[in-house]
Amino acid sequence: MTPSQRFLAACRRQPVDRTPVWFMRQAGRIFPEFRALRRQYGFVELMQHPDLCAEITVMPVERLGVDAAILFADIMTPLQPLGVDYRIEPGVGPVVGQPLAAAADLGRLRRFDPREELAPVLETVRLVRRALGDRVPLIGFAGAPFTLACYLIEGRPSREFHRARALMYGDPAFWHGLMERLAETVLDYLRAQVEAGVQAVQLFDSWVGGLGPAAYRRFVLPYSRRVLEGLGDLGVPRIHFGTGNAALLPLMAQAGAEVVGVDWRVDLDRAWEAIGPDKAIQGNLDPAALLAPFDQVEEQARDVLRRAAGRPGHIFNLGHGVLPETPVDHLRRLVELVHRVTERPAEPEPEPVAGA
Ligand SMILES: Cc1c2[nH]c(c1CCC(=O)O)Cc1[nH]c(c(CCC(=O)O)c1C)Cc1[nH]c(c(CCC(=O)O)c1C)Cc1[nH]c(c(C)c1CCC(=O)O)C2
């Protein structure tokens, strides 16, 4: 098995020579070169430069030795052609110019072809595939309809997304109309990424943990399912990630992905029981552990691996994105540790059959 096959094999719960590892938010923020670029370009402007985005995407593969690259873009990227004006404010996050408040606002959302209006992102995919060759696969991604709806309604990051949740219960016609448009947009965008060459996709539902299971089932699951099932004919593994509420895991596992990404608030073995043995699992080291001395990182990482117990279908990752102040060297040593601890003897070559 070559390193290039490890990640995709684990997504399909096939045996691997070492547990594959990559980190959410590995592209950008932790590298000084990225911070220098950001002094030159606004985040949205940077998206118009496929050559630079490709370079940022490939950087963690070279520096950290991870088993997959993730496209450098943002969950907000497809919202601009949809007609939503936003900026990324350093230290805050996405800020939307005119948040949506009622069904009448849905008329502001445009229909668009991602192949045309997000051409620079798709060009980044093609450049990265060329640069990586068969070293490691490239993961594409999008924000899930719920998490995007939260930003569109609140207008900026919020701890609990009260306004979004209130509108969800109080104006279901608006809510379902918005979720339908977002599901359609995200599906079309992800299909375009796969056509351009991404080899797996991750749907980020970062803020979904603010909901309980009944609300999730009614207001969110149908739309995440529409996106994930709508990719089914393309044959690429689908990863479905959410944070904050382990009680949602059995429902998230029903949305149509092969892999469920779990945060650090649940033990990996318990999470695997919750999603079922027919799913692969991704996670779940606490990103804050990486700010501690490396012997603590090692202890926490070994605990995750012990709970995975060598079962096929574990992709090592953090429970959420890499924190910006994480020492790059800790990440590099963590990749090496996961590979070393999980190394399995190569499968013996089958004996040639005499006379065949
Ligand atoms: C909620 C969310 C966002 N963006 C994303 C999510 C889902 C994952 C998660 O929950 O962490 C996803 C994302 N954003 C970015 C990527 C690129 C690939 C990667 O490294 O994983 C990915 C996969 C680049 C980025 N997206 C952003 C940056 C920092 C931009 C800057 O330099 O100002 C990067 C590298 C901006 C952004 N974009 C967002 C926030 C909250 C912020 C600001 C805070 C931050 O730095 O994380 C929204």
TrEMBL record:
Pfam families attached here?
URO-D
Cited function = Catalyzes the decarboxylation of four acetate groups of uroporphyrinogen-III to yield coproporphyrinogen-III.
Enzyme class, top EC level, equals lyase
How is this protein named in the record?
A: Uroporphyrinogen decarboxylase
- Could you tell me one molecular function GO term of this UniProt entry? uroporphyrinogen decarboxylase activity
Q: Which UniProt keywords apply?
A: Cytoplasm, Decarboxylase, Lyase, Porphyrin biosynthesis
What's this protein's family per the entry?
Belongs to the uroporphyrinogen decarboxylase family.
**Which Gene3D superfamilies is this protein grouped with?**
3.20.20.210
Primary location group = cytoplasm
Residue numbers binding substrate: R25, Q26, A27, G28, R29, D74, Y151, S206, H320
The protein's annotated catalytic reaction(s) are: uroporphyrinogen III + 4 H(+) = coproporphyrinogen III + 4 CO2
InterPro entries of this UniProt entry?
Answer: UROD/MetE-like_sf (IPR038071), Uroporphyrinogen_deCO2ase_HemE (IPR006361), Uroporphyrinogen_deCOase (IPR000257)
Which residues are listed under the site Transition state stabilizer?
Answer: D74
Pathway(s) it belongs to: Porphyrin-containing compound metabolism; protoporphyrin-IX biosynthesis; coproporphyrinogen-III from 5-aminolevulinate: step 4/4
- Where, subcellularly, is it found? Cytoplasm, Cytosol
One GO cellular component term:
cytosol
Q: What HAMAP family does this protein's entry cite?
A: URO_D
Q: Name one GO biological process term.
A: protoporphyrinogen IX biosynthetic process
| Subunit-structure text | Homodimer.
EC number(s) on record? 4.1.1.37
Question: Uroporphyrinogen decarboxylase (URO-D) domain location, by residue?
Answer: 20-29, 139-155
Q: Which NCBIfam families match?
A: hemE
